[in-house]
Structure formats: C-alpha cells, structure tokens
Write a structure and sequence with these properties.
The chain has 5 helices and 3 strands; from the N terminus they run βααββααα. It is mostly helical. A 3-stranded antiparallel β-sheet has the order 1-3-2. A hairpin with a 5-residue loop joins strand 2 and strand 3. The radius of gyration is 16 Å and the shape is globular. Keywords: DNA-binding. InterPro entries: DNA-bd_dom_put_sf, MerR-type_HTH_dom, MerR_fam. This is MerR family transcriptional regulator.
Length: about 110
C-alpha cells in the first residue's frame, strides 16, 4: 500500500501564528475576541491565547464580513446571529475557491 501524505492540522495556534495568518496586530484579534461571542480561544496557565481551528474559521468569517464586505461590527454581529449556518457554508466555499485560485495562478506561472 503506497504512503499517502496527510495534511497536518494543528490543534492549537498561538497568537503570533494567528497574527501572521491574518496580517494584523494582536490588539485587533483581542478586540474581535471581546466583540464577537463566537470567538472563544482557550488560555493556558500563563494566560496566552490558544486558537483552535474552529476559532481560525470564525476569524476568517469575521474578517470577511468586516474587512471585505464592509459590515460594521454591529452589522456583522447581527448577520452572524441570524445566518450562522449560511455564513459557515459560504466561508467553506470561499476557502475552496481561494485554493483553486492559488493552484491556477501557480499553474499559469509555470507556463
């Protein structure tokens, strides 16, 4: 049986890793944590935040609504509250399209 490579997914991400993913300051992540109830990172004994993959998905949703679609914080909270299932499904579609775009851009550069 041939070896299949698996995607290695981390269970927890540090604040530094999250700020690099989203290219923002830690203060913005902490602010969104206070403003949005769906964002609940764990804290270790030192008080450092540890973000789960679900927290990362929720952050993607928040950044999509606030930064890309131009929602206000209150508008984004209301939208999340009323359309939680639709928002998560839409984010999965956006993620898959971004992966496809990255693949196609890489393919075009090779040609």
């Amino acid at each position: 049986m041939p070896y299949k490579e698996r995607d290695i997914n981390k269970m927890y991400y540090t604040m530094g890793e999250v700020t690099e993913m989203f290219n923002v300051n830690a203060s913005q992540i902490r602010f969104y944590e206070k403003e949005f109830d769906i964002l609940q990172p764990k804290k270790n004994k030192k008080g450092n935040r540890l973000f789960t993959p679900e927290d990362i998905e929720n952050l993607k949703i928040i950044f999509n609504l606030v930064d890309e679609k131009g929602f206000t914080l209150k508008g984004a909270k209301d939208y999340l509250k009323n359309n939680k299932g639709d928002v998560k499904e839409n984010q999965k579609i956006i993620d898959s399209l971004e992966k496809l775009k990255g693949f196609l851009v890489g393919l075009a550069q090779e040609l």
